[in-house]
Amino acid sequence: MKKNLSNKLYKLKTKYPKELSVKTINALLKSFSYMIAQNTGNIYAIKENLESVVLHQFGEHDDCGNWCSFKGNPTGKHKNLPWGLDLSNNSLKNDLMSIFKTLDAEKLSKLGSSNVNESFNNILRSKAPKDKHYSESSSLAHRLSAAVCQKNEGYDYVAKVHQNLGLSPGNSTVSRANIMNKEVKRKKIMCKEKKYKRRRILLKVERLEETKTCEVREGDTYATDIMEKSAADLCTEEIPAVERKPQTCICFDLETTGLSRHSSIVQIAASNGSSSFSRYITPLSCNISSEASKVTGITFDGKTMCNQGKELSPKGVVPTKHSLSSLVSKTVISKHICGKIQKAGLGYMHLLLAFKRGGFDGLQLLLGEKNEDAKVRVTRCMKVIENIAAHFRAEFQEE
């Protein structure tokens, strides 16, 4: 019904191109939606308020319902009409009244939202994408069942199916389902907020403006009966688009000690087509699985890293025992201090150099240095600095 009304208004726009702008049409549709939402199921109220939707735009608010804000603020301005002013064309007013009078109040009273259907369609699309041919596949029935279960039971339907089959649902499956269910609830609450609705409307307006701009730039490319027009009647000259900065695509790849969650990175490489970068990294764990070594050709015995038997000595690689993580594992520093040191762009070797050059005072000066915001680079805590200095002293005594 709303789509049919919109089509009629845009058809009438050809008669009143200035007065009946896109903004004015959107204002009429918005008032119409408010009126329907507040009188759902009430045929008499909808029939009485249909004409008030038009009269509202012309400054006549006596017959408006609760959706009209002018009842509480008679001196206010329209938020949706151009310049916030009332419409004044009587001929347009009569044509709009004739359109709204033809609407069936009984059908309008039974209108419902299609959001539920669209929500289920999105779930079904994720299980059986349109670009994949599942219509003749034996898995289609299972995909449809999975979509129904997710709609009715939520994301934890997988764990429930496993339990019914006598299988362990798995901690990761349950945890993931809980996270996804919480996200769904959060979005449902957020969708009801005025701030979200206004943002959604703004984004819709921006998309429409972008589409209209493309239509203006590209000329006649898609329209009713366009094939029946001759080439002379078509305007296909394209206006240049806004120049955009060229975007650089960077591809990167990682090599690791294995496929587990706790595997360490042993190489990172990147390329943008014109230049490339590659760096080998000492793994946190000395063990590189035999399967990973067969694929990458990288081996590490705790001291020497080799690629296809060739010894590597990349810059910045520090032995595992000489790392910030080793200081954390030995409770020399906390994870919090370790994070601050890394955020400050410092590493284990920087701390070691500072201690060699100035001892305790060297560490104090380095970690307590102030940045451009006059904030301490890492810390000035004497206990933390003393722990690091004591660690280095003990290390030198061992050597």
Mean pLDDT equals: 84
* Number of separate helices: 15
Total strands: the figure is 6
Shape: elongated
Unreliably modeled segments: 316-320
Task: Give the neighbour order of strands across the main sheet.
Answer: 1-2-3
Largest sheet: 3 strands, antiparallel
* Percentage of residues in DSSP E strands: 5-15%
Q: What report would you give on this structure?
A:
- The protein is mostly helical and 399 residues long.
- The protein has helices spanning 2-13, 22-38, 43-57, 90-101, 105-109, 115-127, 140-153, 157-164, 171-191, 194-218, 290-296, 324-329, 335-343, 348-367, 382-398, and strands at residues 251-256, 265-271, 276-280, 298-300, 305-307, 310-312.
- 50% of the residues lie in helices and 7% in strands.
- The strands form 2 sheets. It has a 3-stranded antiparallel β-sheet, with no helix packed on it. A 3-stranded antiparallel β-sheet has the order 4-5-6.
- A hairpin with an 8-residue loop joins strand 1 (251-256) and strand 2 (265-271).
- Helix 1 packs antiparallel against helix 4 (90-101) and helix 3 runs antiparallel to helix 4 (90-101).
- The longest helix has 25 residues, at 194-218.
- The termini are far apart.
Task: Quickly list its features.
399 residues, mainly alpha, 7% strand, elongated, three-stranded antiparallel sheet, 50% helix
Give a brief rundown of this model.
The chain has 399 residues and is mostly helical. The chain has 15 helices and six strands. It has helices at residues 2-13, 22-38, 43-57, 90-101, 105-109, 115-127, 140-153, 157-164, 171-191, 194-218, 290-296, 324-329, 335-343, 348-367, 382-398, and strands at 251-256, 265-271, 276-280, 298-300, 305-307, 310-312.
